[in-house]
């Protein structure tokens, strides 16, 4: 049972991808406010091909985070992302349910 839980852990998946030689970025929820659907500490892992596992928002901003993570993988520099109803990107990326989320994206390794 524990091995099945660990196999679904995005950080365990990221380690496996890195061992396979893939470039990997990790996105971590570092702050939420209001009705953000994922708690602080939630992870989304992205490889250099755009494959991803996990979630930082229940689908609201994953596409935007994956796009930014691809840039982080290419450039190597981490980024802090913020999405929310007060942000002009809220309607474009779909976080119209309310709240705000800050996500830190960094390249693994």
UniProtKB/TrEMBL annotation:
Cited InterPro entries: MoCofactor_Util/Proc, XdhC_CoxI
This protein's name: XdhC family protein
PANTHER family registered for this protein in UniProt: ALDEHYDE OXIDOREDUCTASE MOLYBDENUM COFACTOR ASSEMBLY PROTEIN, MOLYBDENUM COFACTOR INSERTION CHAPERONE PAOD
Pfam family, one: XdhC_CoxI
Organism of derivation: Georhizobium profundi
Source lineage: Bacteria, Pseudomonadati, Pseudomonadota, Alphaproteobacteria, Hyphomicrobiales
Domain XdhC- CoxI: 17-84
């Amino acid at each position: 049972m524990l091995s099945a839980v660990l196999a679904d852990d995005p950080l365990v998946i990221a380690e496996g991808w890195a061992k396979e030689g893939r470039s990997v970025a990790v996105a971590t929820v570092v702050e939420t406010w209001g009705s953000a659907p994922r708690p602080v500490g939630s992870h989304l892992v992205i490889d250099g091909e755009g494959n991803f596992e996990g979630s930082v928002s229940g689908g609201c901003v994953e596409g935007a985070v994956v796009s930014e993570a691809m840039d982080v993988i290419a450039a190597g520099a981490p980024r802090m992302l913020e999405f929310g109803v007060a942000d002009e990107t809220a309607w474009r990326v779909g976080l119209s349910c309310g709240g705000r989320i800050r996500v830190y994206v960094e390249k693994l390794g």
